[in-house]
Amino acid sequence: MGDSYKTLTGHRAGEAAIVYEHGADIEALMPKLRHSDYYTEPRIQELAAKERAEPGFCRRVRDFVVGRHGFGSIKFMGETDVRRLDLESLIQFNNREVIVYMDDSKKPPVGQGLNKPAEVTLLNIKCIDKKTRKQYTEGPKVEKYKEMLKQKAVDQGAEFVSYDPVKGEWKFRVDHFSKYELRDDDEAAWGLCDDANEL
């Protein structure tokens, strides 16, 4: 019988032990993500399949990604325990900002949970002329904009990684989480471009 043996609940014999050990089935261990504009890499269905094949996989997911289409993503560096995470209550992407652990009282110590080193990508970070509404993708204005993003990363305790002016994509690394954003007045303070939302 070996690996092909099925229990009454439809799990392979080894998986029945997981149910007993954790007190819940594999689906109950999966991170929760209900809004269709948010996503994970690997996808939640893939996580469930890997947990079935390799019990304990979800305790150590390497470089786990959570993102929101059109807003950005976070890649949590190294291994992350994703079991039973309610991702929508923990991570919020808004235009040009990301917040992890919106409620500081629920934030674990640095290095635990999702409060760990990560690479953040924010979208809609574009250099746009206030008068003509033209998007700049190269030249001195873009270089100054990039310098502003580098300084903004430092001011927020982050490390600048890259800026793609064509895609409007800003990447930076953090050691832990709070709120990271680019506000309109950040650009104004540098005498720079307009907010992409005002187009």
Automatic annotation (TrEMBL):
Residue ranges occupied by any Peptidase S59 domain in the UniProt entry: 35-177
Pfam families: Nucleoporin2 (PF04096)
GO terms, molecular function: nuclear localization sequence binding; RNA binding; structural constituent of nuclear pore
UniProt keyword Nucleus present: yes
Domain of life: Eukaryota
One GO term describing the cellular component: nuclear pore cytoplasmic filaments
Subunit and interaction comment: Part of the nuclear pore complex (NPC). The NPC has an eight-fold symmetrical structure comprising a central transport channel and two rings, the cytoplasmic and nuclear rings, to which eight filaments are attached. The cytoplasmic filaments have loose ends, while the nuclear filaments are joined in a distal ring, forming a nuclear basket. NPCs are highly dynamic in configuration and composition, and can be devided in 3 subcomplexes, the NUP62 subcomplex, the NUP107-160 subcomplex and the NUP93 subcomplex, containing approximately 30 different nucleoporin proteins.
Alphabetical UniProt keywords: mRNA transport, Nuclear pore complex, Nucleus, Protein transport, Translocation, Transport
InterPro entries referenced in this protein's UniProt entry, alphabetically: Nucleoporin_S59-like (IPR037665), Nup98_auto-Pept-S59_dom (IPR007230), Nup98_auto-Pept-S59_dom_sf (IPR036903)
Keyword Cytoplasm found: no
Family indicated by similarity: Belongs to the nucleoporin GLFG family.
Gene3D superfamilies linked to this entry: Peptidase S59, nucleoporin (3.30.1610.10)
Name of protein: Peptidase S59 domain-containing protein
Compartmental location: Nucleus, Nuclear pore complex
Gene Ontology BP terms: mRNA transport; photoperiodism, flowering; post-transcriptional tethering of RNA polymerase II gene DNA at nuclear periphery; protein import into nucleus; RNA export from nucleus; telomere tethering at nuclear periphery
